[in-house]
Amino acid sequence: MTGPADGALRIAMPCTGLGRHHRGFEAVTREVHAALRAAPGLRLRVFGGGGELQNDEHAVWNLPRDSAAARWVSALTHHSPYFVEQASFFAGFLPFLLAWRPHLVYFADLNFGNACWHWRRMSGQRFRLLYYNGGPTTRPYTRCDLVQQVTPAHYDAALARGELAARMLVLPHGLALPDSPRPRENGRIVATRHALGVPAGRRMLLSVGMLGATLKRMDVLVDAVASLGTERPFLVMLGQETPETGGLRQRARALLGDDVWIGTWPRDRMPNAYEAADAFALLSLDEGFGLVYLEALAAGLPCAVQANANTAYILGDQAYRGDTSTPASAASLLREALGESTTNAMRHRRLAWVRNQFSWDVLAPRYAELLRAAASGRRPEWEPS
């Protein structure tokens, strides 16, 4: 395995959960690669943890976090299974690091990046480390060269706790988007709703995220929908299952009966889910970024979300932003979103908002310059001076 002979910068993009999990980390890894695969002067390689990888993605040996082996090592070492996944992934990645000799490692899994830093310190191997802080973490950024914050709020919070401005910059997620809203096809909508168990004539409220209570507060959404009484929509919750999903299902069945569908949905069918919905809700009090916000808004949906600095930056005045801290306050916001009569003009306006700020047409040149700059040990030239 050798680098390109044309002098291009070699960019390694490792993501430990790629192929097995469906978080923002995995989505952004693939989308950056797709947007920049033909960028001049760059050679990008994606490294994933196995499972359902694409043809141009390299599988790296590791102990997946949900495997019996990772749980056993976790119990033995008192580290989390996710830590075990990252540490073992680094061991599997090391041969690629040695043979391909990337100029830059662009990573989102913090403990994996720490291992790369330690290896660089001990071995003397030359590569730079760009950390994509999509979580976001509040741990110190001492073991990377540059940090990509995805919203100004995370940048400001990091400054407030003492991080150096010289080590950070702001560059949000990008999305691949059409020029105009996808035409709504009744046959496709009917088929999707049938697959999700939505009865004919019922309004469908969609939520997308990890299926649990702690981060995405899906339990609060269930309570809020249940409180709507006879007005309540059919609730569809799609996302990655977690240890909390079983309890969420029990709560949803107890409060909503058959008026709910909870499960994982193929990524390539998500546009159909957004198309079939009447409104979208995500009640997280905060998000690392909130890629699903943009997906829902780009599909033209009225979105009910928590009002905070991140949703103001991502959604502007195009969404129903308010207090979702309690089921009662969340229910009030849901009534507003579900009560909207969405017109084609509104759909176009929402898509235009997302396109103008977050489309790859706008952001791909900035990402390309970021990778060139980080690999060369400088800051991007598009930044204000």
Explain how this protein is built.
This protein has 14 helices and 13 strands. It is of the alpha/beta class. The strands form 2 sheets. It has a 7-stranded parallel β-sheet, sandwiched between helices. A 6-stranded parallel β-sheet has the order 10-9-8-11-12-13, with helices on both faces. Helix 3 crosses helix 4, helix 6 (186-195) packs across helix 9 and helix 7 (218-226) packs parallel to helix 8. The longest helix is centred in the N-terminal third of the chain and has 20 residues, at 81-100.
What would you say about this model in short?
The protein has 385 residues and is of the alpha/beta class.
Tags for this entry?
Rossmann fold; 2 domains; alpha/beta; single chain; six-stranded parallel sheet; disordered N terminus; globular; 385 residues
C-alpha termini separation? 40 Å
- Overall structural class, as computed from helix and strand content, comes to alpha/beta
Provide a count of the helices.
14
Order of helices and strands: EHEEHHEHEEHEHEHEHEHEHEHEHHH
CATH architectural arrangement of the largest domain: 3-Layer(aba) Sandwich
Low-confidence spans: pLDDT under 50, at least 5 residues? 1-5
CATH topology tier name of the largest domain: Rossmann fold
